[in-house]
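Hi team,

Filling in the usual template for the complex we talked about on Friday. All components are listed, including any nucleic acid strands or ligand strings, so the model treats them as one assembly.

SUBMITTER: L.P.
PURPOSE: interface mapping
COMPONENTS: two
RESIDUES: 702
SEQUENCES:
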Amino acid sequence: MNLRATATAQQPADEPNALAAAVDAALAAGELDAAIAKLGAVPATDGDWMLYRAWLERQRGLYATSIATVDAHLVAAGASAPALLQRGYSGWLAGDLALAAADLDRAALQATDSALRARIDGERTALAAHRRELAGVAVDAQRVAMAGWITLAAVALALGWTLVSTLRAR
Amino acid sequence: MLLAYWLTAFLCGAGVLVVEMMAPRALAPWFGQAHFVWSNVIGLVLAGLALGNMLGGRLADRRRDPALLGALLCAGALLVALAAFLTGPVARWLLPEALPLEVAYPFLRRGSFVATAVCFFPPVLLLGMVAPFLVRCAATRIEELGRTSGLLYGAATLGSIAGSFATEDLLYEALGTRGTMVAAAGLIALSSLPLFWSARRRAAAGLVLLLGATATLAAHARGVRAAPFGAAAGAPVVAIDSRYQHLEVRRRDDLGAGTLVLAIDEGHDSFQSLTPATGELTGGFYYDYVNLLALDSIRDGRLRVAILGLAAGTHARQLLALAGPRCDLSIDGVEIDPGAVALGRSHLGLPDDPRLRVFTDLDARTFADHARHEYELILVDCYARQSFVPPHVASVEFFAALKRRLVPGGTVALNAFGYGASDPVTEAIVATLAAVFPEGVVVASLPRTANQLVWATRDERARGPDAFATVEWPVALQDLAASLRAPGQWFRATAASGQRALRDGDGWFDALQQRRLAARATAMLAAAPEPP
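RESULT (copied from the run log):
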């Protein structure tokens, strides 16, 4: 998963205003939380800034916040491939692979730019492989869980039955 | 006669305790030795003993026959010997191959429960029948029942004490996990000897003597003593049971052709040390990034480093190669397990270099509290029981001790494993470090890994990656430094109100680490698609 290259490309290229300068200064000083806070007031319809904010939140490890930021943008501005891709990445890192897969699928449908489409397809392939690997593990997890419950029940039953029958025999 | 029963109770008590102590170690190559593994083992062993106590009492009331008790003991001994070799097949049935770390938790927790129940519950149940049975056999008058039972229970407890010390100081190091269990089986079988003898079953007594002696001798056989290979990822190279844990060197071609890793109590795809086939850097694992801090910490041509959690010496090897030529370097490596260092020397390229002093059998906390030297850089990479940071090496008191070992302007750095910079365990470590270093902490998320590098500096604000003077560094390290300087890749944290710092004796940190693993695994497995 090549998050960094993708996400860096989403930083607004043109930074003509004071907000951009303030955010850059905060990031340069290592004040990531402050940089995110400075972006808190941007309009939800502003795709570049909202996605940049979501990306910074993801860098901070705030995956649920990042997803909520993209959600707000999607509600305000409608679906777009970059926004869905962004939310898919955050879902992926948060461990919500189902959300990530759904978002990447939708992003692929929305993408009109061929380069973006190719990148999304690459990520979908990687995610699908990851999910396929986990599918087998999930079946094993159910088997182990079942074995655990059966074992617990058997031990508890043996102890309970022996205790009751011993007490009754007295 | 009472002496014979006393002897049986003593030997059986010793055997039960050896089994109890060996069970977690027997499970370790597959399930690790996390707290929940120990809880499962202790809980199920006690359940087996309780059930055995009740059943043994009832059976003894029906048949007061020492020879029957002897037969039960022999059956228990047989099951103990069997358990030594059964854990592997049972674990392999329970665990998928190359289990990813992020979904490993439920497998390790539930799997260790099932494996303990299958392998260790049956023999312990049989051994639990012995105590009440012995009391019934030994008691001739009701007026002496209290004294007789006290004598026998006391004998079993004394046997347990002997078993405990014998295992720790004698058996385990010489015989390994399986050898110790086979020896315990022999001991348990021999404990039935007085019973058969007193029941005038001379043939049975002779057979038991033969079997017990055979088991004791077999415990020394190389094939029995050898540590088994567990479920860690990669091709097995060598496995040992050290005094502290199960260690394996594995070949991981998926990390680069010919790459060797050290797996410690690991039943999944993580590892603790790494040596590539060529070169010093590991291809972007967190070890590589530590070199940035090391080069940045050189002062007046000198660099004194303490590595707490040396393992097989990846950091030391890299520092000697990369920082060594640039300064007057000295490294103090602290590793509690000499087995890890030995494997580092024999298989993972840890050099025997006069600039590297290695302290083994020494806990990082003890070193921090009692070391006399000062350092420009102290690296903390202490993990135990697979992916758990021991609380006593992440507390305010520990970091305060480290701070006293730093020169003014010296840096302490930690490898924090976590799913993102807001991982609750990472945040707890950062909050604790920030409580000791009020000038603030730098947190860098390392690209393409689940590791954060966290550092703080004594008496001054820690330098961020933006301040690294990288011009004269090797190009590969310059590239790594550049990747850390990317926007949002690193940030500063300071102590904030409401943040909870970990203190010695706090119990919440272990629970937090466990909850983190459980939550991650639950989320990942819930999102897995149905298999085709």
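MY TAKE: The CA atoms of residues 67 and 87 of chain A lie 5 Å apart. Chain A has eight helices and no strands.

Thanks, L.
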